[in-house]
Design brief:
408 residues; alpha+beta; Neuraminidase; 4-stranded antiparallel β-sheet; 48% strand; disordered N terminus
């Protein structure tokens, strides 16, 4: 009987011990699970917040700015542009605000179109406009005569902001940056978007074009050398407050502006058969990325979008292409027959570009090469037939389409 009692006591002790050990292990697991769950939630919230910051509208100083760009590195999260550097380097013919795409049409003027193309509206009748930026219900643009204007998104209250040879207009943190070679060649001008403040950044050289990254403005100068009968370019940088001007590189030939993404400057080397190159922001590691004649590059994330030009059998052929930023994975997006191509602008999944036959037609095409479509309100021939009687038209050396009133 004693043996049975002892045996039962041992069984109870063993059972109690096992239960206690299980409960302790289970309790520890619950604590660890809570920690892991908390960490996962924190990571998810951090990732979600970062994703929202990259995609949402940002409110600064009482107005809404936007970031429709895909940011490839932390360096590029510095401020919010009303049009991308890559688009501005391509004359800023298109930009996005809300559900509308605002774009230039040499057929009609300044227009906007819903993203799904369900609706188009004419805002301003003109020949063509450039450097389009939209902020706080105002559209900023340069007209065919190269004057700087702003107009309400509904087409009302147009106002001239600056007169002259205006170019390179971009808006960052409520400030317009631009050049005006009619007024002063060795300056970049700054103006508050509400015109309340105005200042100048004095340079040691005249800028052909510039690009802004963080607190720095990178600008390109052009000097003609009679000995070699060519234009030589240099790249400088200067802070937005006008100090710290530094030469980065010299004795290169740049065509169609520069693009800056991450720690790299991308450009077309006209001195090497218009191939695409890139260099570090300090001018080091200058390297060639392709072996084809190229123009109008626009860099976004890991891709360089550009126009490739081929001369074959006495004819020029134009291709809309892209390569990775390391020069690999070349893809032909579209072959454009019977026309030159200009001004690659990138918005979301679309490429906006101009075919230059006749007076130029604005198109858009998906980045995968599908859905190539012309953007216009009216029939091309009809819309320009009346204008032919009234205007002389042509294209200047900078690919601007000009018009002059015919004398009666």
């Amino acid at each position: 009987m004693k043996k049975v009692a002892i045996l039962l006591l041992l069984i109870m002790l063993f059972t109690t011990s096992c239960k206690t050990e299980y409960e302790n292990i289970n309790g520890t697991n619950n604590i660890n699970n809570d920690i892991i769950k908390s960490q996962k939630e924190n990571n998810y919230n951090t990732e979600k917040k970062q994703e929202e910051n990259n995609n949402m509208s940002h409110v600064n100083d009482g107005y809404t700015t936007k970031n429709t760009l895909d940011i490839s590195s932390e360096d590029d999260v510095f401020n919010y542009l009303e049009n991308s550097n890559g688009n501005i380097a391509n004359y800023g013919i298109a930009t996005k605000e809300g559900e509308w795409i605002y774009f230039s049409s040499s057929e009609e003027g300044l227009l906007r179109i819903k993203e799904d193309a369900s609706k188009k509206e004419l805002i301003y009748t003109s020949k063509a406009v450039y450097y389009i930026n939209v902020i706080d219900n105002w559209i900023y643009f340069v007209d065919i005569e190269r004057n700087l204007y702003k107009i309400k998104v509904d087409g009302n209250e147009i106002e001239m902001l600056a007169e002259g040879d205006i170019s390179n207009v971009c808006i960052i943190d409520n400030w317009l940056y631009y050049t005006n070679h009619d007024v002063e060649e060795n300056k970049i001008f700054k103006m508050k978007n509400d015109s309340s403040e105005f200042s100048e950044i004095v340079l040691s050289n005249s800028p052909s074009f510039f690009s802004i990254k963080g607190e720095w403005i990178y600008y390109v100068t052009s000097d003609y050398t009679g000995e070699s009968n060519r234009f030589e370019n240099s790249i400088y940088k200067i802070k937005k407050d006008g100090i710290g001007e530094t030469k980065i590189c010299s004795d290169i030939e740049i065509d169609s502006g520069i693009n800056i993404l991450g720690n790299w400057i991308y450009y077309i080397n006209k001195g090497d058969e218009s191939s695409i190159y890139k260099m570090k922001l300090d001018g080091s590691e200058n390297m060639k990325l392709n072996n084809n004649r190229s123009s109008y590059i626009n860099v976004e994330n890991e891709w360089i979008y550009y126009i490739e030009i081929e001369f074959l059998g006495g004819e020029y052929y134009y291709y809309l292409c892209r390569i990775k930023t390391d020069g690999s994975s070349k893809t032909i997006i579209a072959k454009i027959d019977d026309s030159t191509i200009n001004y690659i602008n990138l918005i979301d999944d679309w490429i906006y570009y101009v075919r230059s036959e006749w007076l130029g037609k604005t198109y858009r095409i998906k980045k995968d090469g599908s859905e190539d479509m012309r953007l216009s309100l009216t029939d091309f021939d009809i819309s320009w037939r009346a204008r032919e009687k009234e205007f002389e038209t042509g294209v200047d050396s900078n690919n601007y389409i000009w018009q002059e009133q015919k004398e009666n």
